[in-house]
């Protein structure tokens, strides 16, 4: 495949009087539209071959905020008041043992410090503090997980899950949510698996979030009688989903997409040596008894858990097999050194990125995004992979994409009508 060429355009001039600024299509969006249309499966007897290509979205907290502004950032989620912190463990004991002051509650930095201390105590039992053992380490972690789930529900509410249909419903969708669904619905129909081999462009997801936003979107772009559990591979095959055996134990390549939650998720629970997906509203005591598999922030992340060892290789392979990578709402923080290492697998060397293109959607300016990416990829003065920045919110990118595709469809219809009338 020839390397996609990004269109280079001068910055858009201010709109003249009477012309709405929202009608302007950013060059980054135009480039994305062109690549998507170019890699889409072409129907017809004389249509050119379109080999299967992967379009992968790497999403962070900003993606969920685009869906619902109530969804928290890390700093907002990991902020617990004194009353909530008291339920985790005695503040005085934690302060004396771990040096973490919890009398006024926890913020992001204190959670990082606490989790780091727990990790060290678990990893090096020979040098544990006097009154620390496996059981109270587990109890503190479980109580912390329960407090975080409760905080998330307090901030956002729980996304309604229809157990009978095995899918998420959207109640009273906002205009922004309707556009996001329309955006991914458009991308959903860019490949074709009806022939001997799959062709076109297929969308996948790698998420650093704990929530169920992506499942909700996917459930609302497929048939009413379908569930994303049938078409989605999660990197691990659950023993149960909502108390039932999974509809698919082994997926078919011609109709499957991947959704890998690289930091775990609130619905992922342990079940013996495996996992179950449970989307129901559980009480704090139920959560503490069986906490979700989530990676909590720490000064030194510990990804030795079996879940992370299972999904990391899947994420790495997906990135290596991805042609177009879209980073949305993820700031590449310094604490996420391992996440940056995994992300680098998209193009470990410039030669790996010759036919690849990376879109970075974030409100920060291009220079800031470029600086972040320089910590991850060997860009070497703008060489491969091709990097295209969109300096705005994901909602704006989505709106412009839909307008651009509508404009193209309208022009195509006009040409067809002229042809038929001639």
TrEMBL record:
Q: Where is the composition biased (Basic residues)?
A: 1-12
Disordered, as annotated region: 1-20
Domain of life of the native organism:
Bacteria
The entry's protein name is SIR2 family protein
